[in-house]
Design brief:
Number of strands: 12
Shape: globular
Strand content: 15-25%
Helix content: 40-55%
Number of helices: 18
Radius of gyration: 26 Å
Bound molecules: (R)-mevalonate
Strand order of the largest sheet: 5-10-12-11
Mean pLDDT: 95
Largest sheet: 4 strands, antiparallel
Low-confidence stretches: none
Length: about 450
């Protein structure tokens, strides 16, 4: 298979690249890589890097997604000091951003001084939506759907006897008429207890299975049948108290409370505030091969549930002047199914976490998000975020500029000292070091 084809351009024959490939998916990863190598002009060394899939065997990767040519490693760190509901946890985090793991560990240590994190969660209920259109009497149809609840739930539950046998399954149903640019639509929502699975497969299968009943009852036409990532019935919560002297004194407490007020009032700040919470949560989600897009979509939609986008966490000062934080957000995570049980590192990450149920996992994630938020706000309200960020950032720049071994620390430290963390300066320092004969 060739990525270069001979084609006529302005009367002349010439070779051009083409990304139009039929049957690419049928090739082996090795064959696909050969095509990509030619198309992108990859070197043998670059191809070898792609082929080196580490702990994820290539054939397993090839079964996980389509058109696989390799795998990409991300650093896996472990955040320490977490105490959640009086139990100690180690938190595996996969992330490319410096300072996140350190900040989570530091914040967890502060929270520990105040008794650790406390958490709770709702049952693991996901919502499956069924869109019916072209209904003559949508409001009356809504009544008929609600009346047929038992029949619809039975049909849904027939699809997943395993989920049913562990206490899960479709538990309830609601229906709403929405007005759209295409006229009124009847949206039926299945409420499915997903127990320890994330639930997308189970819920989507159920939603598809009940389609004939919905069409029969409403006289309309069903189009979409799909899980909602705005998982308002699958919430995880965490809260904590940080003694004022531990967090850095009264001024820092006030700074954090003011930072929260800023995020609560201003969506531009709220987006960054929530990104800080998700820094922690998503790193754990990636380490455990859960669906981080689902968590992110749910978190941001939940942050806007009252019609304006706001902060997912709150920070207040209690009667002793101590800092009190809390967070609540949708947390659709699973311990069974998908890549969680097949990816070798995901399995190890779950073992490190030591969580036994998806609910426990969701609560740990909420605590990690709150810790991450605290770490960021404390740094922002106290010394500014850059100090902590800069030394790791400087090391990355030093490596990118070509420093190795002890030269990395030399270049990084010098750049931080000079407040000049730039590629050109890193290169100059490397040259100076070499010229001084130290290498
Ligand atoms: C950076 O990844 C995250 C922060 O911007 C979060 C925040 O501002 O709260 C530091």
């Amino acid at each position: 298979m060739l990525s270069l084809i001979n084609t006529k351009y302005q009367g002349e024959w010439c070779m051009v690249k083409t990304s139009l490939v039929s049957g690419f998916y049928k090739l082996s990863p090795k064959e696909r890589l050969a095509f990509v190598k030619e198309f992108a002009g990859l070197s043998d060394e670059e191809c070898a890097s792609l082929r080196n899939t580490g702990s994820l065997p290539l054939d397993l990767a090839d079964r996980m997604i389509e058109n696989v040519v390799g795998a990409t490693p991300v650093p896996l760190g472990v955040a320490v000091n977490f105490q959640i509901n009086k139990r100690d946890y180690l938190i595996p985090m996969a992330i490319e951003e410096p300072s996140v793991v350190a900040a989570a560990s530091y914040a967890a240590k502060m929270v520990r001084e105040g008794g650790g994190f406390h958490t709770s969660s709702t049952p693991p209920i996901m919502i499956g939506q069924i869109q019916a259109v072209g209904i003559k009497d949508p409001y009356a149809a809504r009544m008929r759907v609600i009346q047929a609840k038992e029949e619809i739930l039975k049909k849904a539950n027939d699809q997943d006897p395993v989920l049913l046998s562990v206490g899960g399954g479709a538990k309830d149903l609601t229906a709403k008429v929405i007005n759209t640019t295409q006229g009124p639509m009847l949206i039926t929502e299945l409420h499915v207890d997903c127990r320890d699975v994330m639930g997308a497969n189970a819920v989507n299968t159920m939603a598809e299975a009940v389609t004939p009943i919905i069409e029969r009852i409403t006289g309309g036409r069903v189009y979409l049948r799909i899980i909602s990532n705005l998982a308002t019935k699958r919430l995880a919560r965490a809260w904590c108290i940080v003694p004022k002297e531990v967090v850095g004194g009264e001024q820092v407490v006030d700074g954090i409370v003011n930072a929260y007020a800023f995020a609560a009032a201003d969506p531009y700040r709220a987006a960054t505030h929530n990104k800080g919470i998700l820094n922690g949560i998503i790193a754990v989600i990636i380490a455990t091969c859960n669906d981080h897009r689902a968590i992110e979509a749910g978190a941001h939609a939940y942050a806007a549930r009252n019609g304006h986008y706001t902060a997912l966490s709150t920070w207040e000062k209690n009667e002793n002047g101590d800092l009190v934080g809390s967070v609540e957000l949708p947390m659709a995570v699973g311990l069974i199914g998908g890549a969680v049980r097949t990816h070798p590192i995901a399995k190890i990450a779950i073992k490190i976490l030591g969580v036994k149920t998806a609910n426990e996992f969701a609560e740990v994630l909420a605590a990690v998000g709150l810790a991450q938020n605290l770490g960021a706000l404390r740094a922002l309200a106290h010394e500014g975020i850059q100090r902590g960020h800069m030394s790791l950032h400087a090391r990355n720049i030093a490596v990118a500029a070509g420093a190795t071994d002890e030269l990395i620390d030399f270049v990084a430290e010098k750049m931080v000292e000079e407040h000049k963390i730039r590629m050109d300066r890193a290169k100059e320092l490397i040259e100076q070091y070499k010229a001084s004969g130290k290498l």
